[in-house]
Structure formats: C-alpha cells, structure tokens
C-alpha cells in the first residue's frame, strides 16, 4: 500500500535533529566491498530505501552482508562473486547502481550493468562513466539495454579528462583505477565532500590516491586492497533540508553532527536571506535572524557552489520571501517538477527555461500534492510545514529513498506530521 505524509502546517520546528550518515557516500562506500575479498565494516550508514536497494544488488552479486540491529553498521565481504550482472530491476530503482561497474571490471574483469533509463530529473547520461572505463583499457559495449564491459587483464592507468565534473562518474573511475596497473589522473574531477570521504575509505583499504577534494585526482594502482572500518560522514543535504525547514517554520533547530564546512555556500545564501546557520560544538544551529525573509538569487553549481540537491527546498523557502528570487538550475535540465505543486499551494513561481522566478507570497495553503524525486518531494513537505491547513504529500517512497525516518525526526521537533497509508 502506498504511503503518504500528512502535515498540519503552521508549527515551528524546534529542538534538535540527528543528521544521519550521507546517502551519497554510503552508496559508493558499500560498493567498495567489490574491490576486496576481505571484510569492510561501515558505521553511521543511513537506514534508507536506496541503501537497501544497493544491498539487495550486492547480495545478488555474491556479497555476504551483516547488518546491526540498529541498521547503522553494515559489514560486507565479497569473497567470491556469484554474478557480474546488475539486472534491470535493481538499476531501475536506483541509478546509483551504476557504481558497481568500475569495481566489478577492476577486480573481476567483467561487468554487465543494465543501462539506467531516463529519470525524473533529466536524461542524466553515463557517457563519461563509459569513456573513463574505455580509457582504462576496458572494452565497453551497449547491447540489449546493458552496458557490457570486459577487460583483457588488469586495467591500465590513464589520463581521464572529464568535460563536466560528474560525482558518480568520478567515483566509478576512482574505483576502477584503484587496482589498475600504473597511475591514473582524473582531470576536472568532482569535488563534492563525498569524494574525499570515499578516497579516505579507499586509502584505508590500501589504495594510493592523492589530490582528492581538488579537481585533479591521482591514483597509483595497487595489486590488491584489504578490509577496513569506516564511519560515513553526515549527510549535508539532509542537514540543509532541516535548516530550510527550521527557517520556513520560524523555528530553531540544532542540526546535530552537521559539518558546517560542507555547506558554506548554501549557508552564505541562507544568511543573506535572513537565516542564521551558526557552527556549534556538535553541529549547526539554524534559525531566522529576522521576521522577514529576503529574496536571494541563486544558481546551482558543482561543489563548492550551491547544491542542486537543495534547490527545491530553497525554492519552497523563497516562495515565502518578501521579494522576487531567481533560481537557476544548471546541473539537471528537468529539475522543476516541484514548481506546479508549490503553485497549487499558493506559491507564485514562473519558469523561464532553466530559471524559476519566485515571487514571495504572504502564506502558503495546505493541499494534496506529490512529486517525482527525493528532493522535490521533500520541498513539498517543507511547504506543508509552513502552510496554513493540511497538506498531504503522496508517494512518500521518494522521500524514504533519501531521508531516514523523516516523519519521526520532524515529530520529535514538534511538527504535526504523520505517515498514512492510502
Ligand atoms: C550525484 C548525486 C546526486 C546529485 C548529483 C549532482 C549520488 C549518488 N548522487 O548524481 O544526488 O544531484 O551528483 O550533485 O552521489 N553527466 C553526463 N554524463 C555522465 C555523467 C553525468 O552528461 O556520464 C551529467 C549529468 O546529466 C548532469 C551532470 O553531468 O547534468 C552532473 O551529474 P553527476 O554529477 O554525474 O550526477 P550523479 O553522479 O548522477
């Protein structure tokens, strides 16, 4: 039965919220199990639908998985592979399944991964993943909806120059190059904090990688990797989402464990809009500095720019500002699906190509809404929390892909929300 979230708006979010481990690090971190026969233990793994999907795929491939009772510690060991095929059913649920491609070819010389189809937020090519693997010496063919990759022997170090920085493309390339013969240089690599975190994990397994966190990453291939333990970093996108929720509801929230340094450009924008996000000993304190919200223009950009994964939530906030903000989406071409739904709640937003012009309104009104991706859906929850009356956000499974226990976390901060089956 499908689940929805029912929100009675107008209640401030106050108190503290525990920020979970980062989804976008947990996914590639789990995949590192494919690079070694020894066991890898990850702590602070978020309990999310996307994590469960990936664990399903790894188990299908032959990984032995142990999950702690609280679900946050996962120990994985891939002594022998049962299969090198990532079937359509797994990849369909989650594009990030493509992350198994590089490690499978690196250690097992072969992989067959269902070609990720179009997705709700744009076409999202994987040409750069394929280009990188080919440069490293793999023979890659697209056949019958699958990416079939084969390497004659060990992959060979190469120079990979990305035309645009791609997060999972950089991760896939690093994980492919880590066991290659010789040195690989990735130019125009993505710099999102999840990349240096993944490299830290891989270096802990015996990899030799430098330059992570910059746009040029160098990987000296090694013959094998060993097991390790690693703690997943906090989820900066979840933290940013709760900061916006506090601001939208005139509340005051401590974002426990949030790494302030991972959200600098986002917090700068919020500051200009009238929202404080102060670093504290154990995280960040988010609250409105003034009664009124200023309209502040933004453009999404690769890290360290304004994150595309916080654009929808920020738009919900700007729909309550006292001016007009222009929000330009530069990363994905179809990432405004929340706009018509926000407008149904009384927001005043016009789309011109890749820019949304958001004219603030005095109040939003509750409505029945739904969206088709994680961040768009959560922006509707934020709008619902700030709105007058009742909002039901349908298709909660989108939110469950990327937000751990969102209803419980919000209830603990005073929100009037409940999960309902429809
Ligand atoms: C990752 C994040 C996602 C975030 C996005 C951008 C994970 C699991 N997901 O997605 O939450 O929204 O980064 O910060 O970490 N592109 C190509 N060809 C390719 C690869 C990418 O054209 O081979 C394009 C994409 O269409 C997009 C841009 O590059 O326009 C950036 O996408 P990318 O960084 O690859 O996003 P993901 O890694 O899929």
Can you walk me through this structure?
By secondary structure, the chain is of the alpha/beta class. It folds into two domains: 3-20 and 234-421, UDP-n-acetylglucosamine1-carboxyvinyl-transferase, Chain; 23-231, Enolpyruvate transferase domain (UDP-n-acetylglucosamine1-carboxyvinyl-transferase, Chain, Alpha-beta prism). Helices cover 31% and strands 26% of the residues. The protein contains 14 helices and 24 strands. The protein has helices at 23-31, 49-61, 88-93, 101-108, 127-135, 167-177, 194-204, 236-248, 264-273, 311-318, 338-344, 374-386, 397-402, 406-412, and strands at residues 3-8, 14-18, 39-43, 64-67, 74-77, 85-86, 110-114, 139-143, 146-150, 159-161, 183-187, 208-210, 216-220, 228-231, 252-256, 275-280, 283-288, 298-299, 324-328, 348-352, 355-359, 368-370, 390-394, 416-421. A four-stranded mixed β-sheet has the order 22-23-1-24, with helices on one face. β20 (348-352) and β21 form a beta hairpin. The chain is globular. The termini are close together. The relative contact order is 0.16. The model has no long low-confidence stretch (mean pLDDT 96). The structure holds uridine-diphosphate-N-acetylglucosamine.
């Amino acid at each position: 039965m499908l689940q929805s979230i029912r929100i009675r708006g107008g209640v401030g979010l106050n108190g503290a919220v525990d920020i979970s481990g980062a989804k976008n690090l947990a996914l590639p971190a789990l995949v590192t199990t494919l690079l070694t026969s020894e066991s890898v233990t990850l702590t602070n793994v978020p309990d999310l639908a996307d994590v469960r999907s990936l664990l399903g795929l790894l188990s299908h491939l032959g990984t032995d998985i142990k999950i702690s009772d609280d679900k946050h510690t996962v120990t994985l060991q891939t002594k022998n592979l049962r299969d090198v095929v990532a079937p359509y059913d797994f990849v369909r649920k989650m594009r990030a399944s493509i992350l198994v491609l590089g490690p499978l070819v690196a250690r097992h010389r072969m992989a067959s991964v269902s070609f990720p189809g179009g997705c709700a937020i744009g076409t999202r090519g994987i040409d750069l993943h394929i280009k990188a693997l080919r440069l490293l010496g793999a023979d890659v063919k697209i056949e019958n909806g699958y990416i079939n990759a084969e390497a004659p022997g060990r992959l060979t170090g190469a120079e990979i120059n990305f035309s645009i920085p791609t997060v999972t493309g950089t991760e896939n390339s690093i994980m492919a190059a880590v066991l290659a013969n010789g040195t690989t240089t990735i130019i125009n690599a993505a710099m999102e904090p999840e990349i240096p975190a993944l490299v830290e994990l891989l270096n802990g397994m015996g990899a030799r990688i430098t330059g992570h966190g910059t746009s040029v990453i160098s990987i000296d291939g090694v013959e094998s990797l060993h097991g390790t333990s690693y703690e997943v970093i906090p989820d900066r996108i979840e933290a940013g989402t709760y900061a916006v929720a506090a601001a939208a509801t005139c509340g005051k929230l401590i974002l426990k464990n949030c790494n302030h340094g991972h959200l600098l450009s986002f917090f700068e924008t919020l500051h200009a809009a009238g929202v404080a996000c102060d670093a504290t000993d154990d995280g960040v304190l988010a609250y409105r500095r003034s009664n009124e919200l200023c309209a502040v223009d933004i453009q999404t950009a690769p890290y360290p720019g304004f994150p595309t994964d916080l654009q929808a939530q920020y738009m919900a906030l700007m729909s309550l500002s006292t001016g007009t903000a222009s929000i330009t989406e530069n990363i994905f071409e179809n990432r405004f699906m929340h706009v018509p739904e926000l407008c149904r709640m009384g927001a005043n937003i016009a789309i011109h190509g890749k820019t949304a012009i958001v004219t603030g309104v005095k109040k939003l009104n509750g409505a029945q809404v739904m969206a088709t991706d994680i961040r768009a859906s959560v922006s509707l929850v934020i709008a619902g929390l700030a709105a007058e009356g009742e909002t039901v956000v349908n298709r909660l499974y989108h939110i469950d892909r990327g937000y751990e226990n969102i209803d419980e976390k919000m209830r603990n901060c005073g929100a009037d929300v409940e999960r309902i089956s429809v």
